[in-house]
Fold this protein.
Amino acid sequence: MPDQPPLCLACRYRAEHPCRPGGLFDADRVAQVLATFIEASSLRPSDRARKRQSEWADDCVMELAFHSPEMAFRVLLLTMIELKTPAEAMALAAGALETLIATHGDLFIERIENLARQSPRFRYLLTGVWPQGKKHSPTWQRVENARRDAPRVAPDDPLPPVGLIAAPPA
């Protein structure tokens, strides 16, 4: 049986488990619903109905970022592919990606550096991450170096291409 992450808030306090159809965690589903949540949140005015229906995915990935970082990293990479606008990219970066780097950056720094070299979109996402009080840490310096040549956010510009990234582990 594949590794199962701990239950997120939505799973602990609701009757249904939206991230676990059939009882097994589904990273692809969480990523797709998280992309929907981000898109609905970034619209002006926001699409409140879609946002409300998909907000569980945001809670889920934040819980994963703290307690199941490998699964969180997988979901973030899958979500990155689904993004359509710079505003959506910055929402993902300033949320779960920033939390993951702040709490488990040492564990992921080599993968972050490799992805930043392979994926213009991932390097772009790194420009939306803040150091969370770790500005002088060696890991944060490596994040800074990894994002050095990334384009800065411009709302009317298209997102950089995803690039050639290795499939995240199952």
About this structure: The two ends are 12 Å apart (CA to CA).
